[in-house]
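Table S2 (continued). Query chain:
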Amino acid sequence: MAITVTLQGQIVITDGTSGAVALQKQVSAVMIVGSAYSQAQSLIVGTLSTVIALPVIPIQFVYIKNLHGIQSVAVTWTTPANGSNPVITLEPGAMLIFSETNPGAGITAMSLQASGSSTPVEMIVGG
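Corresponding output:
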């Protein structure tokens, strides 16, 4: 099965006082052509590292959002070039979007670890 993951939209920055648009940036269609994806609308992550089963290696698209109101989620991933690295800690409501367009490059392993038990995240990975 072939898949195409496309991210498109715009970033708009508005002056809170005047309401004037200070910046409007169109995000060009970032496109990843791959073979598989997986998604979770409410994956529960705990205080122990949760290894994410990747649908294909490497994955070239990642979207993760922390759905918890208080707890944070640490994201760690492995790339062929840099090994395993902590990437970011997603605070409540924060999200991460990653796209790699270089064929053969991407993420070969990924794990999530929350600051507290029963922390929900939503996630889409593909490649």
